[in-house]
Amino acid sequence: MCYNETMKHLIDCAMKREKCDLVIKNARIFNVFTGETEEGDVAVKEGTIVGIGRGYEALETYDAAGKILLPGLIDSHIHVESSMLSPEAWAGLASPHGTTAIVADPHEIVNVCGVEGAEYIKEAFSRLKAGNICPIDVFLQLPSCVPATPFETSGASLDGRETERELSRELFFGLGEMMNFPAVLCGDEDVLVKLEAAARLKKPVDGHAPNVVGDGLNAYRCAGVLTDHESLTPEECREKIARGMYVQVRCGSSANNLADAAKAVDGYNFRRFVLCSDDKNAKDLSAQGHIDDALRRLVEAGVPAKYAIPMATVNIADCYKMSGVGAIAPGYVADMVAVDDVESFHVCATFKRGVLVAEGGKALFETDARYLPAAVKGTVHIKPVTAESFRIVSHGGRLRAMEIVPHTLVTRESFFTPPAGEVSVKGTDFCKLAVIERHHATGNIGLGLVKGYGLHGGAIGISVAHDSHNLVILGDDDGAMSRVVALLERAGGGMAAVWKDGEEVFPLDIAGLMSSAPAGEVVARTSAIQNRARAMGVKEGYSPFMTLVFLSLPLIPKLKLTDRGLFDLEKFSFATLEEL
After folding, report:
1. In a 3-state reduction of DSSP, which class is residue 195?
2. Which helix (H) or strand (E) holds 422?
3. Do residues 448 and 401 make contact, with C-beta atoms less than 8 angstroms apart?
4. Model confidence over 218-257: pLDDT tens digits?
């Protein structure tokens, strides 16, 4: 007769016939199944919770001293690259905030490096060790839209057949956000190959479907899409839940639907809401926290803690069919977080599989970036650029310009009417904008104008630009713009500023998206260069660099600029810079 020795040990520990590995004593244990809290001890054996109660003996004890014990917090959708941190440094900030698992979509780095970028993310996380375990589980999604649109040049491309092949690998947990929802709704054959592959492999598909309701929502669900993080109103949240989706409540740096989603939560549907950050930069992650911050904000918005906590734990586990995750109960993985209370959600300690991995705001593992394969280095390849590259000539007509709606990613169409001849924007409320292809040295440069940004006396630029991540340069001086490009090329990507008396660059040496520097340095230097840009006149209502990174994304209204030119989303076609 054969039986599982591990199971026998778990049973013996639960029956107190055998010592456990760990007992967390004097805790107030939150039960995600009942919404209640009970006082007691939690016993752990071989990374699994074996019992809740009293009287357990263990090799090690931890006194929770009356703290509330929650299941480990999970992020249901995140692009780690958007933090500009290496996976190691990111984990060093997130783990002390209670994060024990993430559903990661490496969309950004795959658009630059191809599937090797996803492999890098997974491997860098897997090399982290606290004791003998990895402090954060990474459920890796295969990006579904590489490139995001056919209107820009990316570093890589994954068609339906390649997606089908890659998705069959154990590396990938599911298919990342299907942001090309128009192609889904019109039945695009290549997109259908990707979706059918996920269905056949029984792997989840994440969504991206702003204002997709009615017949469109029905069609999107028929395609097998499980989640959505782009719901814009309470009504949209309710409709998507009614059609069988999970609504991701987003609490990120660039976008946040938490306040509107909170209005839709009730005592019946709360099990269909899940928390995510999507994009959270290093500064916000360090200062505000991660999913603990989302919980805090949900409770402040009026959602009862007993509804909010499952959104960060068991709801996500149920959504993605993560067996044995998301609860403090016998047989569940011993991922736990001790917090002061369920209002502030101040995290005191984080346990991963019964191992203390963070305490007192500090990670108890090495967070330096030590794994940097060749595939993610040296990713900036451009043809020579000079001041002449930014020259715009007017024939006497009106020139189209993007005017950014403050505090949003949306632009309006505006106009600039300069004298005929070479266009100068100095002394006006306009800046030049350039998107320079940086993957294949094609020489593509898209030129445009931006109204109201406020910058004067130089230029700024960045190698992060959704979603194909070409160089985006903004300025009022052609020479300064060319100097910014030179700085970014030498640095292998990054953030740069050039002004009358100086220049500054912060390298993003990992795919031109992330820095291998420690988290504290990333926070300090990104803050410093943003302050420099602000001193150059960038107005409040615009994040000096982060607003730039979305000016090349043609999926957001109205005008956007790619390396191939000015794109009008409302007309779904390229537009001329000068009005014809």
Report:
1. helix
2. strand 421-422
3. yes
4. 999 999 999 999 998 999 999 999 999 999 999 988 778 8
**Does a cis peptide bond (omega within 30 degrees of 0) precede residue 147?**
yes
Going by their DSSP bridges, the two strands 174-178 and 205-207 should be labelled as parallel
Q: How far, in Å, CA of 331 to CA of 140, rounded?
A: 24
| Residue matched to tokens 């602000």 | 534
Closest by Cα among 22, 76, 17 to 49: 22
What are residue 311's phi and psi, to 5 degrees? -65, -20
User: For the chain, how many helices (H) and strands (E)?
Assistant: 16, 30
Q: How high is the pLDDT of residue 2?
A: 64
Give dist(CA 372, CA 290) in Å, integer.
25
Q: Write out the DSSP string of 363-411.
A: ESS--S-----GGGS---------GGGG--EE-SSPEEEEEEPTTSS-E
| Strand partners of residue 278 | 78
pTM of the full structure: 0.95
User: pLDDT confidence of 3, banded at 50, 70, 90?
Assistant: low
Q: How far is it, in rounded angstroms, from Cα 298 to Cα 308?
A: 7
Angle in degrees, 0-180, between the axes of helices 189-201 and 160-167, rounded to the nearest 10: 10
Calpha distance 384→382 (Å, rounded): 6
- Classified as helix, coil or strand, 520 is helix
Could you tell me how far CA 213 lies from the centroid of its own chain?
24
Please state, in angstroms and rounded to a whole number, the distance separating the CA atoms of residues 87 and 21. Answer: 29
Instruction: Pinpoint the residues of the chain covered by CATH 3.20.20.140.
Output: 69-375
The count of residues in the chain is: 580
* Sequence letter at residue 161: R
How far is 543 from 549, CA to CA, in rounded Å?
10
Residue 248 region by backbone torsions, left for phi larger than 0, else alpha for psi between -120 and 50, else beta: beta
Residue 9: both structure tokens together: 């040990």
The sheet that has 137-142: what strands, in order across it? 73-78, 99-104, 137-142, 174-178, 205-207
Buried b / exposed e along 475-514 (16+ C-beta atoms within 10 A): bbbbebbbbbbbbbbebbbbbbbbbeeebbbbbbbbbbbb
Residue found by looking up tokens 């630029």 in the block: 461
User: How high is the pLDDT of residue 580?
Assistant: 76
Nearest to residue 87, comparing CAs of 35, 134, 19?
Answer: 134
Could you tell me which residues come within 8 angstroms of residue 268 by beta carbon, excluding any fewer than 6 positions away? none
CATH number of 69-375: 3.20.20.140
Handedness of CA 309, 311, 314, 316 (dihedral sign): negative
Q: How far apart are CA 452 and CA 267, in angstroms?
A: 45
pLDDT per residue over 483-510, tens digit each?
A: 999 999 999 999 999 999 999 999 999 9
Please report how the helices 519-535 and 87-94 are oriented relative to each other, as an axis angle in degrees rounded to 10. Answer: 100
Cα 296 to chain center, whole Å?
19
182 Cβ contact partners less than 8 Å away, ≥ 6 residues apart? none
